[in-house]
Design a protein that fits this description.
Largest sheet: 3 strands, antiparallel
Mean pLDDT: 76
Number of helices: 3
Radius of gyration: 24 Å
Low-confidence stretches: 141-188
Helix content: 10-25%
Shape: flat
Distance between the termini: 4 Å
Strand order of the largest sheet: 1-2-3
Length: about 190
């Protein structure tokens, strides 16, 4: 870490591993398959829904996105003490605010998370899933007669000591969750 409370130390930093963005055409094709309508009809519905959402949201409405939540436009602005100082130049940013539905939040909460920790050399040191203790089995040291692991190295993850030789890793198949992880490459 280069700044903050842990400046000068190596830490495991958790970040989600994101896959590539899906093309609109692929989403429309999959939605058409699931709904049983043609891709042309689905494209027309997709375009119309997008236009309606954009129009209503820019008019100040909070618009429902089926199965996902609601979307609205928001802004952040400077405050002033005198009403005579109120003007549009006080607006710093305009943004889109998405509020997920309770069902979507629950689905995310119930989704299994896999966290993979890597050291600075790219070696996997720990893997944790929602119901796993995070040990890594080392196949080379497994006793072939008993089938037991005879002392292969494991790591307990988490943070490393100041100046240690390990930093974060990456998550695999999820975003946040239990345990250490994350992507890091040296001092961050």
């Amino acid at each position: 870490m280069k700044v903050g409370l842990y400046a000068g130390t190596y830490r495991y930093v958790m970040v989600p591993e994101l896959y590539s963005s899906l093309a609109q055409e692929k989403v429309i094709r999959e939605a058409a398959l699931r709904s049983g309508v043609s891709q042309g009809v689905m494209q027309a519905c997709w375009d119309a829904a997008g236009s309606v959402i954009k129009a209503w949201a820019t008019e100040g409405h909070s618009v429902a996105l089926p199965g996902l939540g609601t979307m609205r436009f928001g802004l952040s602005a400077k405050s002033v003490a005198d009403v005579n100082d109120v003007k549009t130049s006080l607006i710093k940013t305009r943004r889109i605010v998405f509020t997920p539905s309770t069902e979507l939040k629950q689905e995310l909460k119930d989704t299994s998370i896999v966290i993979t920790c890597y050291d600075r050399d790219g070696n996997e040191v720990k893997r944790v899933t929602s119901a796993d203790d995070g040990t890594i089995e080392v196949p080379d040291t497994q006793d072939t007669e008993t089938g037991e692991n005879d002392g292969g190295s494991t790591s307990t993850g988490g943070s490393t000591a100041s100046g240690g030789s390990s930093t974060g890793g990456s998550t695999s198949g999820g975003s946040t969750g239990e345990g250490g992880g994350g992507t890091g490459n040296g001092d961050e």
